[in-house]
Amino acid sequence: MTTTESSGSGDVSRSMELLWGTGERATRGPKPGLTLDRIVTAAIELADAEGLAAVSMRRLSTELGAGTMSLYRHVPGRAELVDLMLDRVQGEGAHAPEPDAAEPATAEPHTADSDTAEPHPGWRKTVEKAARDELALYQAHPWLLSVNQTRPVLGPGAVGGMESMLAGIKDTGLSDPELISVIIMVSGYVSGVARTQVHAVEVQQVTGISDDEFWRAQEPMLSTVMTSGRYPLMAALSPDAFGPDFDHFEFGLQRLLDGLEVLVEQRTKR
Q1: Residues 157-185: pLDDT tens digits?
Q2: Residue 35 sits in a domain of what CATH number?
Q3: Which of 193, 96, 186, 85 is nearest to 139 (CA)?
Q4: Lowest-pLDDT range, 103-112, 152-161, 175-184?
């Protein structure tokens, strides 16, 4: 899966208004049956089923049983819609509050100092959960990997997720730039693993060839090569070295956390 488009490629100011609920109502008078919430939900469902390329204003109007122009009364275009889709799914893991599509937002992003905030289980557990939640997010919405998010449009979902993460790791003794770097580091690791997993599913769908069939086709030649003595280390690997039972994601995550723990211990002992 390659990056096909970028977040924030439309009218960023309008995206922010829609995300935070500060924009004007789409219509006056009685509340319409077609809402921004319905449009975003339908777009996500379509992207989940057929990929982001399938999402167009015309296609959505068909799915929703509405005229194409009626969608533009709620959202300026596809670019802004993608911003809303991204923030909505990002809020799934963060449980961030979502503003009402028709009314100004009143809910504030979750803060760790609020009276109702539950105690965090520690920075390591926080990072572990964030990593697993993000992997699950990519698995549920593979199209996320096709969007260049180096310029994120920060809505309630994204900000709520950051707030929750920072609340769980703020006592590590790291500086603010280092805290952000932890988030970037973990997210980069997770997206790399997710991309490999999504590609593995896609290649079977595209080619119609299973993994077993693919490797069996290479087996005769590889058997000859491995007994030639040219690659002794590869030939000496155990039969389960490339087996499906080893959890590479969990192994890598724990080693990443082990390394971070060394730094945290150094900082907190000062």
Answers
A1: 999 999 999 999 999 999 999 999 999 99
A2: 1.10.357.10
A3: 193
A4: 103-112
CA-to-CA dists, residue 76 to 43, 68, 133, 244, angstroms: 14, 12, 31, 46
Judge whether 149 and 86 are in contact, CB under 8 Å: yes
Nearest to 169 by CA among 239, 122, 211: 122
DSSP β-bridge partners for residue 5: 147
What's the pTM?
0.83
Q: Give residue 52's domain range.
A: 1-208+239-270
- The answer to whether position 224 is within a domain reads no
Beta strand extents in 192-261 (DSSP E only):
none
Residue 76's H or E segment, with its range, is none
Greatest Cα pair distance in the chain:
80
Helix locations, 27-122, DSSP H: 36-50, 57-64, 68-72, 78-94
**Residue 213: inside a domain:** no
What is the total count of domains within the chain? 1
Which is nearest to 170 in space by CA: 253, 257, 267, 270?
267
Minimal CA–CA distance to 50: which of 186, 202, 257?
202
Report the helix count and the strand count for the chain, using DSSP H and E.
11, 2
Cβ contacts of residue 201 below 8 Å, gap of 6+? 142
User: Who contacts 183 (Cβ-Cβ below 8 Å, separation ≥6)?
Assistant: 162, 165, 166
